[in-house]
Amino acid sequence: MMTKFLPKGRFSLLTAFASWFLVASLLLRIAFMIWQHDEVSWNIIDLLRTLCTGVFFDLGTLSFILLPAALYFSVLPKRLIGSWFDKIITYFFTVLILFILVLTFFAEITFWDEFRTRFNFIAVDYLIYTHEVVANIKESYPLPILIGGVLMITMLILSVFYKMGVFRATFSNSPSIKKRLLAAGTFIIVAILFSVGITNNQAEWSANRYNSEISKAGIYSFFSAFRNNQMKYTEFYSSVDNGAAFALVRNKLASPNTQFTTDMQSIHRSITATDTVANKNVVFILVESLSAKFLGEFGNDEHISPFMDSIAQQSICFKNLYATGTRTVRGMEAVTLSIPPTPGQSIVKRPDNHNLYTVASVFKKREYDCNFFYGGDGYFDNMNSFFGGNGFTIYDRGRGSVLSDDIKTTRHNITDAEVTFENAWGICDEDIFNKMLGVADRQYQSGKPFFNFIMTTSNHRPYTYPSGKIDIPSGKSREGAVKYTDYALRQLFRKASRKPWFKNTVFVIIADHCASSAGKDEIDLANYHIPSFIINAGTVQKVETQCSQIDIFPTLFGLFGWHYDSDFYGKNVLENGFEERFFSGTYRKLALVKKNKAMILSDQKQQHFYKWDKNTNDLLPLPMDKGFLTETISFYQTADYLFTNRKLK
C-alpha cells in the first residue's frame, strides 16, 4: 500500500531518505520552538519564515549528504544494479549515514540544552579534544541507553523503508541516461549553489536570536563554523582609517600618568607611578562558569555561595563587571592580554601566540615566579601552549600530551597521589588549590615573590565533586557545583591564612564567563555579568563602576602603585576619570557597551545600535550614532591589527 506514495525506480531510496530527513528536521525545529516558547517570536510571518528558512537550509544539507549516493546510483553500470556488490554498498552506507544522522539529532538536543544554539565553533572544538568531551558525555548522560536508542530508531527507519518497498525498487530498476544525468546534475548544482552562494549567516534574518538559530540546520552550521573559525577583521567587519582608529583609541587610553611611544599605530605606553609599594604575592583564581546571578551578593536567594558572599564584604568587590566572551579561553585572553575579544577564535587558540606582552611580562620584570595551575590536561584548548609560551611554568594533569619544542618552560605533572577526586575535566577544586598551596610554600622558602594563576574545573557539567562536602548530592545540578566551588574556596582561604606568606599575598577571584550566554537578542548582555573580588589588598569597597574583565590587572597594578609598560586596553577602574564601558562578544558578534547604550558589530559588515534596558535585559533599537560606531570599530579593529601584525610581541 505504501509503495504508491513513492516514485518507482533507482532513486527511490534517495527520495525516501530525503523525506525522512526533512520531516525529522522539521520536528526538531518545532521542538526547539516549544522549548523556547516564551522567548521565540510566534508571529505568524516569523513562524512561517523560521520554518521555511529551515527547510531551505535542510535542502542544502541534504545536497551534500546525498551527493555521493546520487553519483553512485547515476554511474553504476546497469549490469551491477541489484548485484551483491550493489546491495552491500547500499545497505552499509544507508545504515551508517542513518545512524550518524540520528545520533546528530540527539547531539543537537544536548547541545541546545547546554548552549541554546545550533552547532557552532564550540562543537568544532569538541572534535579536537575528544578525551574530555567523550568523558564528559559518559559522565553526564546514560550513554548505553542513548546509543541503544539511536540504534533502535535507525533500525525502525530501515524497517519502514523496507516495508515501503524502497530497497526493492532501488535494486530492480535501471534509470535512463537522462534520469541519471538529471539526478546527478541536480545534486551537483544545489551543492555548488550552497558552497558558493549561500552562507550560514543568511539564516540570521530575525532580530530574535532564537528564531534565527532555529532557522539554521545543525549540520550545515557545524561545517560553516569549521570553515570560519578564524576571521580577518577587515574582511568581515566595517572598518575605518587605521591611523584615525589608533588616534581615537590612544586618546581613550590616555591619562595624566601615561606616556605613549612615538609609534602611532601602537598603544604601547608607560604607566608612571611612585612605585614605592613592596612586591606582593598574587594568587589569581579564574573560576569556571561563575555567573554573578549565582551569588547572594547579586540577589540569589538559594544560599549556594555563602563564602563568596562573605568575602564580598571584606574585599574590593566589583558589582558591575562583565566578561568579554562565552568561553574559558576568552576569559584567559581577557585577563592575561587585557584586550577586547577579536573575531573568530580566541588568541589563546591561535597560531603564533607565544612571547606576547601579557600580565606575566609585568610580573617577570619584577622577578616574580609565574605559574599556571590547571586540574585537567592543559593540552585542552591550547592552554599549555599559550601559558607555556608566555612565561608561565605549567602544573597540570598531563595525560600524555607533550609541549612543542619551541615552548621554553617547565611542565609539572599533578600525580595520582595528589588527587582525591577527578572527573572528565580534571581534578576537583580542592585538589588544585592544595597543589597551589604546596608550590607557594616552596616559592616562599626560595624568597621570590610569586604570581600563581589557577583555572578551576568543578563548576562544569557533569557537576560532580567529592561526596560529603556540601548538602547537595554530586552530579545533580549546577547549583551543587557552584556550592562546592564556594566550599573549596573557603577551604583554600582557611589553609592559606595559616601560611607565613598569607599577609603579603593578594588574592583575585574572577569568573572566566557566565554559565549561559544565550538569549533572544544578538548578544544577551546580562549573561556576561560576572563577580570579581580583590582580597587582602588593604582596602574594602563595593565598586559600582561598569567595567570589563580586561580592567582587572590594570586595576591591581594601580593598587600596587606600580610603574610598568603596558600594551593593555584595560585601565585602572579606581582611577579618577575612568570611563564606564565594557566589551563583550561571541566569536562573530562584537559589542561595546557604555552604561545603557550598546553598539554591536556583525561579520556581514553590519552594525546595530541599542538602548539596553538592564531591568528587562531588552535591547531596544536606536538611530545610529556615528561617533559611537567609530569608537566601537576603532577598538576592535586596532586590537585585531596589533595581534595580526605581531605588535603584541
Quick structural overview:
With 649 residues, this protein is of the alpha/beta class. It is 43% helix and 14% strand.
Write structural notes for this entry.
With 649 residues, this protein is an alpha/beta fold. It has 20 helices and 20 strands. It has helices at residues 12-35, 44-75, 84-115, 121-128, 130-140, 143-163, 166-172, 177-196, 209-215, 218-227, 233-236, 242-253, 306-311, 328-337, 359-365, 383-388, 429-446, 478-496, 552-560, 626-644, and strands at residues 258-260, 269-271, 281-287, 315-322, 369-374, 393-396, 411-413, 422-423, 426-427, 450-455, 505-511, 529-535, 541-543, 547-548, 564-566, 582-585, 590-594, 597-602, 606-613, 618-621. Helix 3 (84-115) crosses helix 6 (143-163) and helix 12 crosses helix 20.
